[in-house]
Design brief:
The protein is mostly beta strands and 211 residues long. The protein is built from one helix and 15 strands; from the N terminus they run βββαββββββββββββ. The strands form three sheets. Strands 4, 5, 6, 7, 10, 11, 12, 13, 14 and 15 form a ten-stranded antiparallel sheet that branches. A three-stranded antiparallel sheet has the order 1-2-3, with no helix packed on it. A hairpin with a 5-residue loop joins strand 4 and strand 5. It starts with 7 loop residues before the first strand and ends in a 5-residue tail after the last strand.
């Protein structure tokens, strides 16, 4: 990846927030938030606690999906994000998972990176403008698997496509409401060797049955 934007990664009970200079760039907010949202926005469910997640993996529901957020954070300042998508302006591609053979699996066509930016022209024309990170016009497909290996312990498998074409398998520990793991940096040519992942899983969303 090329030039990068310095990002601060913060995990919170409502999900994951990525901020640039203290202002939110991307947020996966709780569905119980009192903050008003535009019509058509798809909201992520509140993340499950470690105890709830352990219970789910031992007795999973299969007739529906679990909302998932995956965030990667590297010491060189490059952050990756896959999760809540805004239906009124973005293509489909939010992250969710289904259980099969004791594993939670899923994929997204829109894993976004902070160093892939879109130019935003100034309002009213003229010179200037801004560079907006996490460009939806430069996504990467990602598929994943999550398997429970013990109380609060999980194995994560990630498969990045389209230009990155790399696979990672690593151990993750549940902390609060997030799975946290550590593995190699995403790109083949990076300013750092390692990346930290934070993964949250929301409550079950049953499949709608139309009669």
């Amino acid at each position: 990846m090329g030039a990068f934007t310095r990002i601060t990664l913060a995990g919170c009970a409502a999900g994951i927030a990525l901020s640039v200079g203290g202002t939110a760039a991307v947020a996966a907010a709780s569905s119980t938030s009192s903050t008003p949202h535009p019509t058509g926005v798809v909201h992520a469910a509140a993340a499950m606690s470690c105890a709830d997640l352990d219970q789910v993996f031992q007795s999973p529901q299969t007739n529906g999906t679990y909302p998932v957020t995956v965030v990667s954070n590297q010491p060189d300042g490059i952050v990756g994000y896959g999760g809540e998508q805004y239906a009124y302006s973005y293509p489909s591609g939010g992250v969710s998972g289904q259980f099969a053979n004791g594993q939670l699996t899923g994929s997204t066509s829109n894993y976004l990176f902070s160093d892939r930016a879109t130019f935003i022209p100034p309002t009213g024309g003229g010179f200037g403008g801004a560079s907006q990170p996490f460009s939806i016009n430069a996504p990467v497909p990602l598929s994943y698997t999550l398997a429970r290996t013990g109380a609060g312990q999980y194995t994560v498998g990630l498969n990045f496509g389209s230009g990155i074409n790399r696979q990672f398998t690593f151990a993750a520990q549940c902390m609060g409401e997030s799975l946290v793991g550590y593995t190699r940096a995403i790109g083949n040519n990076e300013y750092t060797d390692d990346a930290t992942y934070t993964i949250t899983i929301g409550t079950f969303v049953p499949t709608t049955i139309i009669h």
